[in-house]
Amino acid sequence: MKNKITPPSYSYGKVNNIVPPEASKYVICAKDIVKSFYIGTPNELEILHGMTFNVPKGEFVSIVGQSGSGKSTLMNIIGALDRPTSGSYYLDGIDVSTANDKELSAIRNKQIGFVFQTFNLIARTSALKNIELPMLYGGIPSKQRKERARELLEIVEMSDRAGHMPNELSGGQKQRIAIARAMANDPSIILADEPTGALDSKTGRLVMDLFHKLHREQGKTIVLITHNNELAEETDRIITISDGNIISDTGNRNKLRKEAEE
Amino acid sequence: MGFFENVMLAVSGLRSNKMRAFLTMLGIIIGIGSVIGISTLGSIMENSVMDIFNSQGGANLVGFQITMKDDASRDYIMSDDFMTAEMANDIGERFAEDIDAIALMSGSESGKMTIRRKDYDISLYGVSPGYIKQSMTKLVAGRYVSEKDCEQYRHICVISDKQAKKRFGSERGAIGRSVSLTLSDGTITDLTIVGVYQYQLTAMMSTMVNMMGDDWNSEIYMPYSTFNRMRGVNDDTFYGFNLNTKTGVSAEEFCQKVETYLNSTYYRDNDAVEVMYITAESQMAMIDDVMGMLELAISVIAGISLLVGGIGVMNIMLVSVTERTREIGVRKAMGAPNSAIRTQFIVESMIICLIGGVIGILFGILLGNLAGVIVGTMASPTIGSIALAVGFSMAIGVFFGYYPANKAAKLDPIEALRYE
Prior knowledge:
The complex is a heterodimer. By secondary structure, chain A is α/β, with parallel strands linked by helices.
């Protein structure tokens, strides 16, 4: 996609100069990720036991796991909402595991587009303003924000709902606005947490189709977190986790298939 | 994120919950309103006092009267202690270049005025011609006490316009009417009203006067000779005299000079009584003092109300932060740094206080001028006091908004997103 916006130059404070070579090849480069809670107390609990996986640019990957498998914890780390206890995580070549809170904010703002199960649009704020939100925190001027937001509304086919408040929109419409919002700063990855979980199967289908469209037409890297195997089957690659470990990784099946066909 | 966006955000947040926003503002409205109200009232009073002061040449009006010494050898005044016309004349000649006019007052008595078998409290003054003309009063009907009145011991008097209106219906209607006065020592005398003066100070102080009862404006003037005879003392017995200095003469300096002269010449051997002076300016200063005390008292009340209001704002902001925990989580997920969240809530609290402050200012001006209508003058508070009120209310917003805003800023995004 041709991005009309040149985001203002920003730095993440300390940029780690020693980027491992594989980190620059992949959008997500996670190595030996461990996450523990209640560290130093008798209740210390290790949720993730050292996960290693890489996601190349433009891949549509799903992370599947039952509840309690460590899925949410992994998502929080991928989404730069949290740091791993140990291990390294590079997002588009940026070291997330050592970033401070302010740097994490900037990473979330520029590199990650969140799509939540419960949409999480800001109440009493129009669809357009909701889409503008990440750009607002990204310091993009008002005029450019509006332009970009309208462009995104068009992509998600919601142009006629620009001025509507979230409570005037259906679930499917809300999720489309949320997806447009996730795309606002043209992030490295779109991180979707059960995006169809609160929708009926028909609108859920529409939302999935939209993800496929963004993946296909704009080459977006999408990480879909779900417990629904059917949805996962639609994606390029399925990473299955259980009890804090990766138990299977299909690799990019489409790519493999294509290579096999050749 | 720009300041303007924060303001828009705060305003839309407040609009969604108008009643709550208003109730939150109430403390600030009352606090700021009372500060502005009292300062408006203060400037109204000052204006009207200054008006009278200036129009009557108040700065030139000074008075000398006898008073007991601090270390007096007795606690009563004897007839020898009083001033005499001779003293006034002496002063008039000696300081002629500084003096415009001089008039004597033989004394004052409190008593009752009886009209149609009803009693009203009054203060009676025995004065020489020109005395009333000199004091800060203006004749509205009839005439002043004259030389002839004094020479012939006439039983006449001049009363205030307020009394005339209240007791006789109109100012003119009072002229020629007879009133019966009973003094505190039981002396009864009948006087004919020949003049009505305008009690100017009443206008400005009517609010205070109404609180103190309506006898403030009950000063009645009569010829000093008649007054002295009635009290059984020598004609030539005066309690004090008033004089107008020429313009350009420093009242304070002049008074000190005259006071020293009188005390060293006529009262040097008197071990109980001395002369003291009163200037219109010093009386003005007294009024200012009273106003200052009043302002201080109201300011303390206003301060408490602002404190309570500020705590109310803090309370509501804490509620608001809790209610919007999820929104805060979403904003953080979208990349809002802690500082942006903090600013958002501080601006919101500031806007509450600012709107409250502005309403308070309008409310205060209204209140002050409502009192002004009774007094008969209008005024607006000074730009300085408005700026101070606006600034102060915003400062309250920042001060009491900081803690909730900081709490919001420090929320863990994961926890906040999960909050139900």
